[in-house]
Amino acid sequence: MERTVTPLMWQNDIKNRAKSESIGNDFILLDDFSMLPLFNYPFKIDMLVVMICTKGTVRGTIDMQPCNLVAPFMLIVQPNQILSYEFISEDFAGQCLIFSKNFSLEVQPYLDERLPIATAIRKNPYAQLDSQSMLFIRKFLFILKRLMAMTDNPYRLEMIKHLTMVSYYMARPSFEKIIEPEKPNRQVVLVEKFTNLVRENYRMQRETAFYADKLCLTPKYLSEVIKVASGKSVSEWIDDYVILEAKALLKSTNMTIQQISEELNFPSQSFFGKYFKRNTGVSPSEYKGK
Question: Does domain 10-179 have CATH number 2.60.120.10?
Answer without folding.
Answer: yes
